[in-house]
């Protein structure tokens, strides 16, 4: 990583584009390593090897950077699930639940970001930024809903309800499954309390299977 003393301002469009990408990658690395809560503009600048003041030439805030990462996460997750499901119309509830839960478990940064999106990221950016985010997310989820309808017995309204439930459950379950160091110590020292922890993918899979079973039964 370059030292701050070697920092050079980007002047050409290509250099500016690369600098913006470097800052985004720095935020991704930091969030993946230490969690979304630990990411600051200063840390992003240090990781990217630029002065802290340079970050604001490209992004208004850490919240904007993290919201863009969440936007990428929605697109990536939607594509992954859509690729898995195909369009057979014969996928059963447990298979659908596994596809949704397992693809989320494979994307820890996205799961962590889901906690922060509605809590603070959407609240701390401009109207134009949050509008662009919502447009991108709705597009990604519309594709995902279409793939669920094509692969299962669920209709469009049920598929939307399912995705809403998946997102709503993922954030708290992910945090519960990855407790703070103090909680990890507590569970180790007092095993009777360890049952309050959860195993993310299996727990989410069980809950989603039951939900999809109920939705499917209501169509009979």
Q: Classify the beta-strand content into a percent band.
A: under 5%
Rg is 20 Å
Question: What is the average of the pLDDT values?
Answer: 90
Distance between the termini: 60 Å
Query: What letter string, H or E per element, gives the SSE order?
Result: HHHHHHHHHH
The oligomeric state is single chain
Protein name: Transcriptional regulator
GO molecular function: DNA-binding transcription factor activity; transcription cis-regulatory region binding
Pfam family, one: TetR_N
Keywords: DNA-binding
Structural write-up:
The chain is an all-alpha fold and 220 residues long. The protein is 73% helix and 0% strand. Helix 6 (108-121) crosses helix 8. The chain is globular. Residues 1-7 have low confidence and may be disordered. It holds the Pfam family TetR_C_34. Residues 17-77 form the HTH tetR-type domain. One of its GO terms (molecular function) is transcription cis-regulatory region binding.
Summarize the topology.
Elements: H1 13-34, H2 41-48, H3 52-55, H4 62-85, H5 93-105, H6 108-121, H7 127-151, H8 156-177, H9 181-189, H10 200-218
Helix pairs in contact: 1-2, 4-5, 4-6, 4-7, 5-10, 6-8, 7-8, 8-10
Key features of this structure:
mainly alpha; 10 helices; single chain; 220 residues
Summarize this structure briefly.
The protein has ten helices and no strands.
